[in-house]
Amino acid sequence: MIRITDITLSCLEAFHPSATHLKQLYALLERIGSDFIEIPVAVYNSIRPASPDRLILRITTPAEAVNYPEISRFICRQSGLEASAGIMTEIRVNDIKELTFIGRNTAPNDVRVMGLDDILCHDYQKAFARIRKNLKGSVQFCPENAFYCASAAALEWVSAGGTDIAASFGGIGGKAALEEVLLALRVIRRYKPNASYEVFPETAAVLEDILQEKFEARKAVIGRGVFDVESGIHIDGIMKKPKMYEPFSPELVGRSRKLVVGKHSGRKSIAAKLTEMGFLTGNFDISRILSQVRSKSVSKQSSLTDEEFFKIAEKYRL
After folding, report:
1. How far apart are CA 211 and CA 7, in angstroms?
2. pLDDT tens-digit profile of 131-154?
3. Which residues have C-beta within 8 Å of that of residue 86, sequence separation ≥ 6?
């Protein structure tokens, strides 16, 4: 059984989010449906979630756990590897060579392995096998993203037989991107095949407010431009058989496909765009519209907005 822990709320300390933002974000993360949601003590005390069943509380020392009898799962960066009942121990492995030392002391029942940014640059299958062999209890993997492959590393962990992953929405805090992991596991492993991720855009918007920064338009899964399609052949194919081009539908993640026109467009692209905008293609000179679209796109070095396309199309209405 695959278990995913959402650690988004533990990655926001540097941004000082308001209680309102935290409540909004927590409600959205609950709807996404990860198995567990990690939450720091300060955030927990600020928003006091109604149901702690899926919570993992991040504490500073094991002694703090007694202050929260309503919660049964905790995580703590402990010194050493002594076991603490109900408390997951977080250990950092900065380099794959450090795996030699894991498990030499008394290992706790539950461990989160952090770091290993460059694990995919090595024999990661042997590395994963060593982790699972040396740590006898439940092992959760939380890869970091200095080499831009944390999401891939998390998925390879599952492929190697690992069951527990920790990730953050949007990959904030330099972790694996929760949404990428969820969608990849859905496609590859049919993980939660009936789940809906329509709240992804709203979740991304709340995070953007907190971070005061926009996610890249082409960021996998949650980018605003992920489902923008320009190439003429691509548009023709995707309109006929979307599954040949998209591993999941835009609607699954709260988006819709958008046809954009530019220097790569063809006649079918122009016709499809006119249809999308509610026009009858027979009422326009498509060849002349295409020529103007390509010229405009090359001049501005980007695709056209709907407004720019409409102005050109209006000139060549028959």
Report:
1. 16
2. 988 887 789 999 999 999 999 999
3. 65, 72, 73, 74
Whether 8 contacts 27, CB under 8 Å: no
Contacts 24+ apart (CB under 8 A), 186-195: 186/248, 187/247, 187/248, 188/155, 189/2, 189/158, 191/2, 192/33, 195/33
Could you tell me whether strands 36-40 and 110-115 are parallel, antiparallel, or unpaired per DSSP bridges?
unpaired
Hey, what are 93's tokens?
A: 């492995």
Q: Are residues 140 and 110 in contact, defined by beta-carbon separation less than 8 angstroms?
A: yes
The owner of tokens 């005061």 is 212
Q: Give the C-alpha separation, 60 to 77, whole Å.
A: 7
Q: CB neighbours of 177 closer than 8 A, spacing ≥ 6?
A: 150, 151, 167, 168, 169, 170, 171, 220, 221
| Rounded Cα gap, residues 167 and 151, in angstroms | 8
Determine whether 16 is exposed, middle or buried from the number of CB atoms within 10 Å of its CB (0-12, 13-18, 19+): exposed
Q: Using one digit for the tens of pLDDT, what is the confidence trace for 28-82?
A: 999 998 999 999 999 999 999 888 889 999 999 888 999 999 999 999 986 445 5
Tokens of 112: 């989160």
- Going by DSSP bridges, is the β-strand pair 138-143/74-76 parallel, antiparallel, or unpaired? unpaired
Fill in the amino acid letter for 264. H
What is the pTM for the complete model shown? 0.87
